[in-house]
Design brief:
The chain has seven helices and ten strands. The protein is an alpha/beta fold.
């Protein structure tokens, strides 16, 4: 019997990824379901950012392993540059949430460093593992404990809390958006399959989904989540929530390494420190998202 986690009142559930992935992999491919891409020109990935080593902390009642990278030139707690706004916070949720490795979070967020203004954000990542996956109460508590710690110990902009999920990490972003203790400004979901945690019938009417923004980076060659099953769900998400934007890459693969190489310009633009915080899209972004969906239907 498949194990099921039920959450109230959001009415979303998570099924074991392995079982659902098998169903996806055995389904026939339908590339015609994929939308035309309107992404910015591809630019090469940036050279490695000279960032300090990650801080390795164990937080919360069960000492969850977390990694933290401080903004450039921010060496002390509560330190804030005089001429810049307070740095925001980016929380990275890693993939592979059912492994026996309880310390993935110690270094997970470092993959994002080349694409983020080194003075603009605190970057951090908690850990998930078998028995305490992202969408479980324990997994959400791990995320909250890390955000609470960062807010208490560093002078960050608490109105600029952002979350990035890759593969399984996307399930945590969705679950946290429904159940977590902090409002999110921007969410970036890479190689996702939201139906693993939120059935399509539960997607409409989620008030917290209308807060902040959503950017989905999805590939046409994703080996785990084929586009014919995932893209129609994401297109429906765009229609229901104007603050959502699907970035479709026909040659996109499942691993973050594809996007770090082929979509570095997009990743940088999503986390530009100079971009003002927004609870929704600008007019041009909203129009672009609607056009994307229209061309695909």
């Amino acid at each position: 019997m498949l194990r099921r986690f039920l959450f109230s009142p959001a009415k979303f559930r998570i099924l074991p990824v392995c079982a659902f992935s098998i169903a996806l992999l055995t389904a026939p491919s339908a590339s015609s379901a994929a939308p035309a891409s309107s992404n910015p020109p591809v630019t090469p990935a940036s050279p490695s950012v000279q960032a300090p080593p990650a801080l390795h902390l164990r937080l919360g009642p069960d000492s969850n392993a977390c990694g933290i990278t401080l903004p450039a030139a921010k060496s002390g707690a509560k330190a804030v540059g005089k001429s810049r706004r307070k740095p925001g916070l980016i929380v990275w949720l890693h993939g592979g949430m059912r492994s026996q490795n309880r310390e993935k979070g110690l270094e997970a967020h470092r993959a994002l460093l080349p694409f983020v203004d080194p003075a603009g954000y605190y970057l951090c990542s908690p850990s998930a593992f078998a028995g305490q996956e992202w969408p479980t109460p324990q997994g959400i508590a791990h995320i909250d404990a890390l955000i609470d710690y960062m807010s208490a110990h560093y002078a960050l902009d608490t109105a600029d809390i952002n979350m990035v999920g890759v593969s399984d990490g996307n399930l945590g972003v969705i679950a946290y958006s429904l159940q977590g203790g902090h409002a999110l400004n921007r969410r970036v979901l890479i190689s996702s399959a939201p139906q693993l945690v939120l059935p399509l019938e539960s997607l409409p009417g989620q008030a917290r989904f209308a807060q902040g923004t959503w950017d989905f980076l999805q590939g046409g060659r994703d080996r785990l989540f084929p586009p014919d099953q995932v893209v129609p769900y994401l297109q429906q998400w765009e229609k229901l929530y104007p603050n959502a934007h699907l970035h479709y890459f026909p040659d996109g693969e499942h691993d973050f390494s594809f996007y770090s190489e082929k979509a570095s310009g997009l990743l940088k633009s999503l986390f530009s420190a100079e971009k003002p915080k927004s609870a929704g899209k600008s007019g041009s972004q909203k129009t672009q998202a609607i056009q994307n969906s229209s061309r695909a239907n």
